[in-house]
Here is the input.
Amino acid sequence: MENRKMPQVRTDLAVEARDMVVEREENRSGGIKGITSKERVVDDIKITDVVIDEQGATLTGKKAGTYVTIYADGVKRQDTKSQKKAASVLAKELEQLLEINGITKEAKGLIVGLGNWNVTPDALGPMTTDKILVTSHLFQLDYETVAEGYRPVGAVSPGVMGVTGIETSNIIFGIVEQFEPEFIIAVDALASRSVERINETIQLSDTGIHPGSGVGNKRKELSKETLGVPTLAIGVPTVVDAVTIASDTIDYLLKHLGREWNEKNRPSKSLTPGNFSFGSKKFTEADLPSEEQRHTFLGLVGTLSEEEKRSLISDVLTPIGQNMMVTPKEVDGFMIDMAHLVASGINAALHETVDVSNFSSYTR
Here is the structure.
């Protein structure tokens, strides 16, 4: 397998790009130059900070900048209390990112909801902008009535090129020229290389975004370099490709067999579906069986490295056109909840008077 060319794994998450670099450089000591990463917990919400410089950008394929990943698993669990916490954390992290990029509390902002509102897993952007508190018209038409603690904010959903026939970036460039915002926040659906991160991970960055990157259809970049003003991005992975699903399934199978073997210490012939004890406990690396056991369970496939496994599956699925982009069957509900969470966080971050205390009042 040494000569096999490794496939380009589809992921828009900096934390996953970092993980792939770590996997490739696992025999090196002293960490990975150009990438700094730390994990922390705020109000029971796990957060990972990844800072990439120019050297790290070459290694990861991600632009140099700051990336903040928030783990909001309450969306999948339909836990309103957990979602409210995640919205509050998102607001605080967005406030800090705005401050880092020199954006004042009075600066005029434009929220851009990227994506296709006719395709559910790609509709995060439009669904989010529908819930944004827009105020720029009030500052223009009736400034005296605007209370303190608000800033001028506009929102737009430019659609996708396949619907409008116009390059999305060209639409945004025209709006920016006329609206003259001092900063932009782009919201879009992303792709992940892990099933576990779908619809429960929120990434913030100050590097801008490529519309359509989640499905391998990159359009022109939206960033400070192209738009002339600081451009932040908020993304949520909503799809994975079939290679990822197949690879993760093999990992889950091996870990389940490893756990059954260790806990019951039964011969392999008893490890049949009828003897599995399914539970709610999540699999960990400690559940992964030894290389000898992996070979016993799945033969050669069980002993492949992560990259070799993905490469093999890609070689099988891609030529026959079966490496599809897939989303969970519950995506409709997930998108409603996630759009509400993201919009609540943005509103609270941009307007001092707004908080997420009324989050629980929303119902599907």
